[in-house]
Amino acid sequence: MTSSAIPTNFKEIGLIEPLIARLTELEYTEPTPIQAQAIPSVLAGRDLIAGANTGSGKTATFALPLLQQITAQPKQNTSKGNYVSALVLVPTRELATQVANSIKSYAAHLNGAIQTVVVFGGVSANTQMLALRGGCDILVATPGRLLDLISSNAIKLDLVKTLVLDEADRMLSSGFTDELTALLALTPSSKQTLLFSATFPEKVKTFTQELLNDPIELQLQNAESSTLVQRVFTVNQGEKTAVLANLIKENKWQQALIFVNAKHGCNHLADKLGKRGIRAQVFHGDKGQGARTQVLQGFKAGEIDVLIATDIAARGLDVEKLPVVINFDLPRSPSDYMHRIGRSGRAGEVGLAISLIDHEDYHHFKVIEKKNKIRLEREQVKGFEVDEEAIKELLEELKPVAKPEGSGKKKRNKTEPVNADIWGKKSDS
Ligand code: AMP
User: Fold this and answer.
1) Is the beta carbon of 344 within 6 A of some atom in ligand 1?
2) Ligand 1 pocket, 92 CB below 6 A?
3) Among 19, 26, 39, 59, which residue has the most ligand 1 atoms within 8 Å of its CB, making it the best to mutate?
4) Which of 162, 167, 191, 268 is 20 to 30 A from 156 via CA?
5) From the CB of 345, is ligand 1 less than 6 Å away?
6) Residue 206 contacts by C-beta under 8 Å, 6 or more apart in sequence?
7) Taking the C-alpha atoms of 133, 155, 198 and 192 in order, what is their torsion angle to the nearest 10 degrees?
8) Inter-residue contact 264 to 310 (CB < 8 Å)
9) Where are the domains of the chain?
């Protein structure tokens, strides 16, 4: 591959006609930057580590070359048993379904030659075992269920030629490390590996260095090119629900995705909104898979106006033209903030991300801003102006109890500036 010029259309990228025809139908007029830069290398068999904004077309970046490579391979796997040629690992069940659906859609003109199967937990394994009989070309899976299926001999990874880790930072984070290590040990060392994620925290880089062979590295995060507007509203303690209800009603949002940190918090907020005449559905890990699927479909189809979710909805989910994402609770980690807000403003659409912060969130939001290299003007919602005196008092109350020895005084001064401006109408940007 020549690295001189970045291709500007799908033909130049080197895709075959049936794929281009499908992209034309989907009205993909030109490749996104990540597609233009990564697909030629992936087609050439290179390993890849790619960081790009969420909603930047990452799925097609790996799906199209996978389909093309498998089309070019002599058909052999299915006759040889339960083998899989390309494995795509994703962190959540919904993302698994979404990615598999995208792959099947891109393959529409390949005459059914490529078999794509999706497996994930929370539903019966029997149907998935049946689907895997005789192997498949592309398997999209969540790690836990895949390990179960491997231990039941439903699938083998010995012939995997390409491994994709979507939302790689999450896949490589603590919760998944053991499962991922076990799965990687079952794949051949000669495979091609592709890592995609919107964020690549330092701690996962060591792991990826061991995993990848002379990879192409692409970092295409670009705040300026974002079509997503981020706003932050300061609110009085105890008024978040009222402010949220007001925003929803005033703006008449047809679809709003609201993030809350705990499962019971989702239910609680839905009840409280209900009392204010706003019907909301919840989406979290305590719901059965059937209910999760149904709620998500309803939300994507625009039948549900307000969806209150935990971070299981933060990764990779693609709700077309989602107008607004709201952080009712701030996410714990700055990278989760990026993933959450990335549900809106996808594929060049205009989007909006709102965070509601009361005084307890103030410091944490500053950390989120710092880590993500953003700085937002603190705004207030009309009719819910912040009571500056109360805030000052609350901040005073929240001050750590003074240590009699006085040794920590200097440090405390640094970390807790009681800055009334932050809560007032003045901008601190
Ligand atoms: P992804 O980042 O893969 O979740 O993609 C985000 C959205 O962008 C999806 O709705 C895709 O269908 C859409 N998309 C991907 N590539 C293109 C493209 N080249 N042109 C237009 N839309 C695209």
Assistant:
1) no
2) no
3) 59
4) 167
5) no
6) none
7) -110
8) no
9) 3-220, 228-398
Q: Is 61 in the pocket of ligand 1 (CB under 6 A)?
A: no
Say if residues 129 and 154 touch (Cβ distance below 8 Å).
Answer: yes
Bridge partners, residue 379, by sequence:
233
pLDDT in tens, the chain (429 residues): 444 577 889 999 999 999 999 999 999 999 998 999 999 999 999 999 988 766 788 999 999 999 999 999 876 544 557 899 999 999 889 899 999 999 999 999 998 889 999 999 989 999 999 999 989 999 999 999 999 999 999 999 999 999 999 988 777 766 788 898 899 999 999 999 999 876 776 656 777 777 888 888 887 755 444 678 899 999 998 999 999 999 999 998 889 999 999 999 999 999 999 999 999 999 998 888 889 889 999 998 888 999 999 998 887 677 888 889 999 999 999 988 988 998 888 766 778 999 999 988 989 999 999 888 888 888 888 889 887 776 666 566 655 554 444 444 333 333 222 222 223 222 222
From ligand 1's centre to the CA of 56, what distance in Å? Answer: 6
Q: Is 98 in the pocket of ligand 1 (CB under 6 A)?
A: no
Asked if 3-220 and 228-398 have one fold, the answer is yes
C-alpha span between 25 and 407 (Å, rounded): 68
Instruction: Please indicate whether residue 59, judged by its CB atom, sits closer than 6 Å to ligand 1.
Output: yes
Q: Is 41 in the pocket of ligand 1 (CB under 6 A)?
A: no
User: Whose Cα sits closest to atom 6 in ligand 1?
Assistant: 55
Fold topology of 228-398: Rossmann fold (3.40.50)
**Residue where the block lists tokens 């231990």:** 151
